[in-house]
Design brief:
By secondary structure, the protein is mainly alpha-helical. Helices cover about 55% and strands about 5% of the residues. The protein is built from six helices and four strands; from the N terminus they run βααβααβααβ. The longest helix is centred in the first third of the chain and has 14 residues. It is globular and about 40 Å long.
Length: about 140
């Protein structure tokens, strides 16, 4: 499975429902996080939480043994196509830059996406958890 920024931040900060996300990762054989989502998670944590939370984020990624997926040229094409189809101003999913990169990673890996929120549920991406859209 591919872990989106929204799911990673929810786990690290203990948002309601984080246990469901954590359980989904723990039972997956090869959970991964795109490098772009890892960067975005660092940015979100830095902007909204005390600096010590960055250590919690890094420890969580290491503890869950999340494989970091590099962003490739092929993913760039997939992300561009995702924006054309589902991007803000084009579709109710309103995918932003980071969302398009997470979508592309899941597509490239042939893996479901673990996320929080409604944006990805309005696309054709396969959700990693049956209720990924709730959060």
């Amino acid at each position: 499975m591919i872990v989106d920024t929204s799911a990673l931040v929810a786990i690290v900060t203990g948002e309601p429902g984080y246990e469901r996300l954590l359980d989904a990762i723990l039972v997956d054989a090869d959970p991964a996080v795109p490098a772009s989502c890892l960067l975005e998670a660092h940015m979100v944590i830095r902007s909204r939480f005390p600096p010590a939370m960055l250590e919690t984020l890094d420890a969580t990624v290491a503890g869950l043994r999340l494989r970091v997926v590099p962003f490739t040229e092929a993913q760039s094409a997939l992300a561009s196509a995702a924006f054309d189809r589902y991007g803000r101003g084009r579709h109710p999913a309103r995918l932003n830059f980071g969302d398009c990169m997470a979508y592309a990673a899941a597509e490239a890996e042939g893996a479901p996406l673990l996320f929080v929120g409604e944006d990805f549920s309005r696309t054709d991406i396969v959700a990693a958890a049956q209720d990924s859209a709730s959060g």
